[in-house]
Design a protein that fits this description.
220 residues; five-stranded mixed sheet; alpha/beta; Purple Acid Phosphatase, chain A, domain 2; 5 helices; 11 strands
């Protein structure tokens, strides 16, 4: 399976045609939250339409900067991974959107308990042997993916616990713009490609293991 992941698009879709070849080749394109910049359904529609111009299949979670009607729109379109599991080519993809409470107030926030509940409801039973991929807008706690410019870690303990327990092959994440990079948490690879407008997106090839994971650039 080939996966492409974009995060923190924030309405900036100008670069999408520049990565058309990877979008067309991907089995699934994952949108890891903040499709808009404090936007509503029309903004999310523009993003989804721009991506589906090239992509065969798209799955998405809303971010904390997306209003709740975007979560409903993704559900109605049957592309939402927020609180859902999609099994594609023998791989279980699960997702959780929004974030922990942020400085100020953003439209889609959850407590640690709520994040844990959403993941528990989305995930195949503990006996499932399917390879797992996690899409989480909020990164797990105490990793490279959740470290802000002060050095403080601001990720989720609930998402970290989920990764430690369920051991997904990859966690695609975002939210923390300055924390772009690839990290490991136990056996799980974490990738935050950074805000899409700055030129980064994630590319992965996997079967029962990760054969390739990298951050690619649609511009230098």
């Amino acid at each position: 399976m080939n996966l492409v992941a974009l995060t923190d698009i924030h309405d900036d879709i100008a670069g999408i045609p520049n990565m058309a070849a990877d979008l067309e080749a991907a089995d699934v394109v994952l949108l890891a939250g903040d499709l808009t910049n404090f936007g509503h359904k029309p903004g999310a529609e523009r993003v989804i339409q721009a991506v589906t111009r090239f992509a065969r299949r798209v799955l998405a979670v809303p971010g904390n900067c997306d209003y709740p009607d975007i979560a409903s729109y993704l559900d109605d379109l049957h592309v939402s991974l927020h609180g859902h599991c999609e099994i594609i080519d023998g791989v279980a993809l699960v997702g959780v959107g929004g974030s922990l409470p942020a400085p100020g107030t953003t439209p889609l926030e959850f407590s640690e308990a709520e994040l844990a509940r959403i993941l528990a409801e989305a995930t195949p039973g503990p006996g499932s042997q399917l390879p797992l991929v996690l899409v989480a807008h909020q990164p797990p706690f105490r990793t490279l993916s959740d470290q802000i410019h002060t050095g403080e870690h601001v990720g989720s303990t609930a998402i970290r616990s989920f990764i430690e327990e369920r051991r997904p092959l990859i966690c695609f994440t975002g939210h923390i713009h300055e924390a772009a990079g690839i990290d490991m948490l136990d056996q799980t690879r974490l990738v935050n490609p950074g805000p899409f407008g700055k030129g980064g997106y994630a590319y992965a090839e996997l079967d029962n293991e990760v054969n390739r994971l990298e951050i690619r650039r649609w511009r230098g």
